[in-house]
Amino acid sequence: MSETARNRLMLAIALIMAAIYLFPLYWMYVTSLKSGSEMFANPPSFWPSSAQWQTFAFVWESRNMSRYLWNSTVIAFGSVALIAVLGTGCAYVLARYRNVWVDVGLFLILMLQVLPASLMVTPIFVGFTQVGLLDYPRLAVILAIAAKSMPFFMVLVRATFMAVPMELEEAALVDGNSRVGAFFNIVLPLARNGILVSAILIFMQAFGEFVYSKSMIQDVSLQPASVGLNSFMGPNTSEWNNIMAYATMYVTPILAIFVLLQRRIVSGLTSGALK
Amino acid sequence: MRRIFASVRDGRGFDIVLVGVPFAFLFALAGLPLIYNILMSFQEVDMFSLGSFIRPFVGIDNYVALFKQPETWPILTNTLIFVVGSIGGQFLIGFGLALFFWTNFPGASWLRGLFLVSWVMPGLVVGAIWNWILSGDFGVLNFFLRESGLITANIFWRSDPSFSLWAVVIANVWLGTSFNMILLSVGLSDIPGDLYEAADMDGANAWQRFWTITLPMMRSTIGAIIALGLIFTLQQFDLFAAITDGGPNNSSNVAQYWAWDLSFRQYDFGRGATISVIMTVFVMFAAAVYVRSTRHEVRG
């Protein structure tokens, strides 16, 4: 078999496998466009006979999605800002030196990274109640997410800083820059892309965060979209087209960002997670 | 004072501030809760004593009472099944896909990256989609299984106690496979190509090459990925909330969901903390394995 024929065959198989793997996603989009009766047709239809676009507007209005998505955005931006401000510098120091203290620090970070949110939420909730932080529930969730995701961010960004040659920073110091100056003028700009990709990854995680928000935000008007989706899905719901429309509006922005930045995100992820 | 300021601007102090502040933050919001959790597991904590620092000390009563509860062992067994089933499925499918994409045809790396959408989606959305796919009467999975002749009657994935846990396992395998695949691909691409050329010359077939080169060379990667899988599987919460809610009758309940349920639905924070402590020990153990298998890389 010639090289091109082989490549075409492999590509075709790969496309089929991707189609099978991504079928759940396709099913979400198709279901969101079906009418109430078509949704329960047997055998199921794999293409909506008449696309019900008005479902989106209906769900957007009736479920108050703009408020939910706004809250998700506030929480995600708050967490990312806090994580980036605190985590970047720490990752830089952990990348710059190599001694036993750095090893200890990395070990602690890796240990913190693995703590499940659903287990940590009990002590955090009780502690936050006692210090009165639950009066500002979104801030409380931001703090909790920051503590949960910062280790992961540090690991990813540290890998980026490792790739910045030390000589550049040393040259800047010789030229009379202070440490602060060299950090902000030389090192940070060089690591900008890696930091940005890691921040986007953290943003996507925080945008979909559920455990902390569900446990700490009682006020409906402050809840994010994940909690809204959860309360939309009652035990015996039959509005699957509406729920899928909700899910579509929630997840499509994230998917768009991911597909656009896919190469960078994947390489950023792989450089950090195993190293 | 000025010396401290100068050191922060241009000396050792700069490093100390950069590391000190985040670590203080992490200690306050992750270290302290961890310690507090252990403390609470020895106390009686309910809605009324929630706000006070002085609570009745009950020793190991929480632990004893917990293991006397009839649902404890079934839930721990479920956790084990969930972990083994999820990791097994994710790893095997992920490894298969990684090996396939490793053959490197045009478009391979882009398509491979596309799989990762399952991993970046909010867990609640993944859960909602699978909830609908797994639905009993109208679920599309039952339709496929019927058409292919694998089943004759619909399986009620979410409400049948013998299938409810597997419903979540299926969704979790889907969610995690892509992440496994990406990391395994990295491991595969790090294997030096000349090993295969040498094996080729010695006349080894594909099967022999896989067992004598690929698997041994991948050992530390595989160790790290299994440990990571354990960590991620024990963190899985959203799928339970979105698909079965731990039911029916705890048949799909696992420890991490139960801990939350005890605290936030039954308001027995002491007992919720007790399970959390037990599970945290397990997770820490997995993390130690993970760090061990990636240690040479951590030191870079």
UniProtKB/TrEMBL annotation, chain A:
SUPFAM superfamilies recorded: MetI-like
GO cellular component: plasma membrane
Subcellular location: Cell membrane
GO biological processes: transmembrane transport
Keyword set, alphabetical order: Cell membrane, Membrane, Transmembrane, Transmembrane helix, Transport
Main localisation: membrane
InterPro entries: BP-dep_ABC_trans_perm, MetI-like, MetI-like_sf
Gene3D superfamilies per the UniProt record, alphabetical: MetI-like
Bilayer topology annotation: Multi-pass membrane protein
Regions that span the bilayer: 9-29, 68-94, 106-128, 140-161, 182-207, 243-261
Domain of life: Bacteria
Residue ranges of every copy of the ABC transmembrane type-1 domain listed in the record: 69-261
Record-stated family: Belongs to the binding-protein-dependent transport system permease family.
Protein name per UniProt: ABC transporter permease subunit
Source species: Endobacterium cereale
Automatic annotation (TrEMBL), chain B:
Keyword Disulfide bond found: no
Transmembrane feature ranges: 12-39, 80-102, 114-133, 163-189, 210-232, 269-291
Places the protein is found: Cell membrane
Top-rank lineage group of the source organism: Bacteria
Keyword NAD: no
Any one cellular-component term (Gene Ontology): plasma membrane
ABC transmembrane type-1 domain location: 76-290
Keywords for the protein's UniProt record, in alphabetical order: Cell membrane, Membrane, Transmembrane, Transmembrane helix, Transport
InterPro entries on file: MetI-like, MetI-like_sf
Main location as per UniProt: membrane
Biological-process GO terms, alphabetical: transmembrane transport
PROSITE patterns referenced in this protein's UniProt entry, alphabetically: ABC_TM1
Topology term for the membrane: Multi-pass membrane protein
Family: Belongs to the binding-protein-dependent transport system permease family.
Protein name per the record: ABC transporter permease subunit
Organism encoding this protein: Endobacterium cereale
Lineage, top ranks: Bacteria, Pseudomonadati, Pseudomonadota, Alphaproteobacteria, Hyphomicrobiales
